[in-house]
Amino acid sequence: MFQLSHLIALAELHRTGTVTAAAQALNFTSSALSQQLARLEAEAGAPVLERVGRGVRLTPEGLVLVRHAQQIQAELELARAEVAAVRGEVAGVLRVASFQTLLLDVVPRTVQALAESHPALRIDLVHREVLPAIHGLLAHEFDLIVGEEFPGAPAAVVDGTSREDFLLDPLRLAVAPAEAEALDGARLAELAAHRWVLDPAGSPMGQWARSHCRDAGFEPVSGFEVTDPLLQVQLARTGLSPAFLPGLVGAEHLNGVSLLELPGRPHRRLYSLVRQASAEAPAILAFRTAMHASARQLRPPVAVGAVLG
């Protein structure tokens, strides 16, 4: 008889690729995870791992067990969702991961609405960027995460998940008011000599920003590499550097900053992602409905002009 916990341990090792990463995802020590895998081999009567250099890989028998473990996990989660749906109960704990700009307005408004409409549902929020949030979703650390997709860079399809788009968020140029007046109707390339406020090059926002500048004919020089949009606003406010800002940074944060529309009026697409087996769970449906309603209430800050390509 197979122990489900042992099968889950093997499936997590398959997903993460190393014993250390799998142990961290499951909140085990590496030695405890190794013990679980050894017990699974005894249950299977066959090796499930083999040494490859300093690491391990799954044997054919191990891959068979992973496939069944994933099916069992999905069926159990589906069963929980269907039982909750039959009871019609929106209750329990929903673990949600989101990046910062949504946490400024949309997600708190969603949580407040759910506290009024479904007081038996508790929302636990965690600040995570998209890629680690996806890993957390697949490891059952989170029940729902929020993702973003930038122009020209479609998000990868994540097997075993359900995606719902809920917002097109405009991307604008933020500068000091004196600069905005001079730049209105000018070309973005006129800012080529500036030192920019940019997200890290490996981040989705950072990749898009650099690509947008290249399309305008120049390579932006990063004077400040910052992930916090409110700090980006502050740097733009002082006139030190231009910055790209999403519309979710509301007008209440933009005193002393002017926004200009960018060539092509680009937007990023925001979406929620859940495991496919839990997509119809009442708590998931309630959160998505409330978040969509909160997003519809948004009014992006008004741009005072536009730069050209």
UniProtKB/TrEMBL annotation:
GO terms for cellular component: protein-DNA complex. One of its GO terms (molecular function) is DNA binding. This is LysR family transcriptional regulator. InterPro entries: LysR_HTH_N, LysR_subst-bd, WH-like_DNA-bd_sf, WH_DNA-bd_sf. It comes from Galactobacter valiniphilus. Pfam families: HTH_1 (PF00126), LysR_substrate (PF03466). Transmembrane segments: none annotated. It comes from the Bacteria. Belongs to the LysR transcriptional regulatory family.
